[in-house]
Amino acid sequence: MNLHPDYLLNQIQGPADVKKLSVDQLHQVADEIRHLVVEKDAAIGGHLGPNLGIVETTLAFHYVFDSPHDKIVWDISHQSYPHKMLTGRAYGFLDNERYHDVTPYSNQDESPHDYYRVGHTSTSIALAVGMAKARDLTKQSGNIVAVIGDGSLSGGMALEGLNNAGKYDGNLIIIFNDNQMSIDDVNGGMFDQLTALRESNGEAPNNLFKAMGLDYKYIADGNDVETMIHALEDVKGIAHPIVLHVNTVKGLGYAPALADEEAWHWHSPFKIEDGSDVAPASDAENYDQIIKDELGRQIEAGQPLMVITAAVPGVFGLGEIKAKYPAHYDDVDIAEQYSVTYATGLAENGARPVLFQNSTFFQRAYDQVIHDMALNRYPVVTIVKNGRISDDSSTHQSDFDLAMLSNVPNIEYLAPTNAEELVAMLQWALTQTEKPVIIREPAGEVTHGPISATAFNQIKAQVVHQGKEVAIIGLGDFFALGQAAAAELAKDGIDATLINPVSASTLDEATLGQLVNDHQVVVTLENASMSGGFGEHVDRFFAPTKVRVLNFGAAKEFNDVVPLAELYDRYHLTPTQIATDVKAVLKNL
Amino acid sequence: MNLHPDYLLNQIQGPADVKKLSVDQLHQVADEIRHLVVEKDAAIGGHLGPNLGIVETTLAFHYVFDSPHDKIVWDISHQSYPHKMLTGRAYGFLDNERYHDVTPYSNQDESPHDYYRVGHTSTSIALAVGMAKARDLTKQSGNIVAVIGDGSLSGGMALEGLNNAGKYDGNLIIIFNDNQMSIDDVNGGMFDQLTALRESNGEAPNNLFKAMGLDYKYIADGNDVETMIHALEDVKGIAHPIVLHVNTVKGLGYAPALADEEAWHWHSPFKIEDGSDVAPASDAENYDQIIKDELGRQIEAGQPLMVITAAVPGVFGLGEIKAKYPAHYDDVDIAEQYSVTYATGLAENGARPVLFQNSTFFQRAYDQVIHDMALNRYPVVTIVKNGRISDDSSTHQSDFDLAMLSNVPNIEYLAPTNAEELVAMLQWALTQTEKPVIIREPAGEVTHGPISATAFNQIKAQVVHQGKEVAIIGLGDFFALGQAAAAELAKDGIDATLINPVSASTLDEATLGQLVNDHQVVVTLENASMSGGFGEHVDRFFAPTKVRVLNFGAAKEFNDVVPLAELYDRYHLTPTQIATDVKAVLKNL
């Protein structure tokens, strides 16, 4: 139901309605937007700080410009809630039964005021320059506006974008939303110079934007809607690219968010009155902690570890490492390419780098993995998290990591099946010196079990149960699914062999070769997209033989917030479905 | 034989010998190095301009610093010939029988003065910061020096590197070798501001390096060895990061190279006296020209094409497009990530972007291909060149493109088998609006033949010859190899079916499914690494059936300048080997 039928926002169907508002009404709508951001995030979780900081900029944009004739591109788009409320989608925030009808990122299928599905950082300038040049080439008109935050500016593509924007000579407005996202964490680098610009009202020398050849203006109070309206009116229709450096306050209007900007960038459901979590903190075991505990032991034993993250410490809880071992911790900002090549340099000169990365963001460093890490064979250790079939947004689809990493020479991509194996692999990876090792952190709850080996120089698949006729190979966290499928087959008297393949990138051909003698069907299970993944490598091995292979994993497709149960059902990833498919093949042999 | 037994270089076995040289001798050695660079490149081809420009910097480095205790990292390392001559490898330049004993890029297996196999740009700062932090963490000493050119500075990772260097607080010297590589091509952006720095003796405001938080010094005459010695003595042992902006002249000492810096960046064998080519220009047909001719027709017919390159116009001869259709051409500098996302923006707003990229450099834009291009399904058209098994340096290995691109949803990765099919695919790609299309430019000489279709919305494999028992699927430029293998099998009375699969990313399952009825063996041929590639997709399709599949392509391994004939033999890529392998499987059915 509509929780706020009295709100002015109910009467705003689109930008035309924003233009009719008085200054007082603009202030009222700003308050309403802030309340709705907090209320919705409190109920279902979401990005909070970025949306609270950008309210006035968004109101001013729709007051001054004429969307969608004038076009606005949101970097990452995690700050687009106010934009959505002002472009016909307020219902997704007013009505708690419709919270899920409006997605949290921009989406061109949802509104003509949105242009891209986007969830990774630092892309907005490139997209906006492209739109601007297309406008010129096709003789269209209208302003093109990009909005990018300071957190995203450290990403190489954003800087490539500034250089190319500086070479362009038509209308382009880059709103640099400086909410000092990184201020607590960063000393030196570009962020000190941005501070100098803020403190000098934009007058300090060594201006990064001007150094890229761009025109520049500073707006000290980006949370004053009248100031923002004047600022945008001043640049509307400008015939060359300009950066509007807008100083805003992240989390403005919600006290807990102002007190801890990092914690409130994104937040899970909370109680509005004090910001406390709705769900009690879990004290269950988790793989992150198991990894960090092992690294702590190694650091205390004198290993020259360097723990590296590219601006996602929260994903792994790396604040703990930073606090206890600051000399062994480095957050390189949003700079995934740099993180891998930097790790290679650390390894070359005798340190032991341990890089933590999310599957979806690791895609940004693919060439660095190949050209710097793999070709050069330095012993960089990487932990990949969230490599799995998931119910995430399609912008963060995380099941491509096997195709990305298992096909690169010289890398061992290990897939532990339980906590003990994970620790054994990590210990080995940190002592060996022959190659880069990537460890796929298992998804889901922690399981315990035997380790497959203590050294992994030679990959030896672990035959956990020797059966016959059918062999099930369960990779990493899908080993448990293999056990369940084997139990299902046992009900029909089929005694399936059960194998932990240990590595996603190296096949133990000796063990697999023996299956040809007394097995008719081999089953592969991978928590990943199958195209280019583990199962296809097994297929190639058995392709010239009489053995039939059945692969289970995700199809090659994007999925946008599809419930996991639905995906598992679609991909036949339940023990019953697997057993049924296996029996069908057996019957037709 | 040693062509210059009289050269002082014969007495330089390493950096210790450089330190003994008088100023006059340093000048003499500089002259010798220049002569040898020109002489070797004239004989076998190689990087010329970058090596001629860096001679004095290199001499000064080895005069002032103590390599390998002090370490120098060369960006791309295409300017490392002088370094190699001064670190015990002058024989590879003095003795024309040993030209191939010294590789053209840095190589840690070749010398303790080299640290990485490197051939892609913009990595040196990341590597150097890593080495510096590892030095600190492991309580080593010595200076860390990175050398990076202005051409590489536009790459996002270099800029990420500057930001992270600016955050570091120990010894690090970044030599910014500004030889105005891009000066002819570039207006605006960072390069205008670098010009302002040169013209103001380093005093101009809006200094990119200072904006990244770095200390900075300008050296106007980087080709004066005494100046460079003093400059490096001044910063040796410095306790914080500093950028030495060194102004040098690319191609210094060879008149033709000074007259056309771009043409002499790398050069094939030439006559020293006038710089003319040894090999006469070929007037044979080539696929680049066929593509450019088609694009020219489309532009003249009014299509809003935008031809994009990320600083490799020479690979495709795009200067022709730039000259004839300047409004339809954009070189975005070394900025591969940007190029893809920018193309997506162009497509969104109604232009028709055509991106040209080398297989090996395209790796830099993997996430942009997935997150911006594929997920958003805009009709960006990309031409990928050199996707093939090759005799290149391992730094430029180019056979990973099928694993990189064929596993991404929503993309059609087309593999034409001849000129007519290439044009048909390009024409279709530029009129359809449903998805990004990538076209794999065939390697080798142009062939002609029938087209498989005029539209490629639905992939329909082309059964070129209907046989039985054995089916050969030859992808793209390996279709011809399939024909040859079929001819070989015909000698033994085997009438193989011959199929052009059209796409590397989409299987025509209807056509493949029919093979199950009357074929025992399916053969796949791909000019690529097989791991994650085309053949494995075919394997997965047939895995649950009785059909045996044999895959032919490259193994998952790096190869460093291995002759193509040797690779083909190793991978069984000759018609005779293929036929023999097929017959062996048939015999054991």
Automatic annotation (TrEMBL), chains A, B:
InterPro entries to which the protein is assigned, alphabetical: Dxylulose-5-P_synthase (IPR005477), THDP-binding (IPR029061), Transketo_C/PFOR_II (IPR009014), Transketolase-like_Pyr-bd (IPR005475), Transketolase_C (IPR033248), Transketolase_CS (IPR049557)
Alphabetical keyword list: Isoprene biosynthesis, Magnesium, Metal-binding, Thiamine biosynthesis, Thiamine pyrophosphate, Transferase
Domain of life: Bacteria
Domain Transketolase-like pyrimidine-binding: 285-448
TM region positions: none
Keyword Transferase: yes
EC assignment: 2.2.1.7
Enzyme type, top EC level: transferase
Gene3D superfamilies: 3.40.50.920, 3.40.50.970
CC per GO annotation: cytosol
Cofactor(s), by name: thiamine diphosphate; Mg(2+)
Pfam families xref list: DXP_synthase_N, Transket_pyr, Transketolase_C
GO process annotations (BP): isopentenyl diphosphate biosynthetic process, methylerythritol 4-phosphate pathway; terpenoid biosynthetic process; thiamine biosynthetic process
UniProt KW Protein transport keyword: no
Listed pathway(s): Metabolic intermediate biosynthesis; 1-deoxy-D-xylulose 5-phosphate biosynthesis; 1-deoxy-D-xylulose 5-phosphate from D-glyceraldehyde 3-phosphate and pyruvate: step 1/1
Molecular function, one GO term: metal ion binding
Family: Belongs to the transketolase family. DXPS subfamily.
Quaternary structure (record): Homodimer.
Name the UniProt record assigns to this protein: 1-deoxy-D-xylulose-5-phosphate synthase
Species the sequence originates in: Limosilactobacillus ingluviei
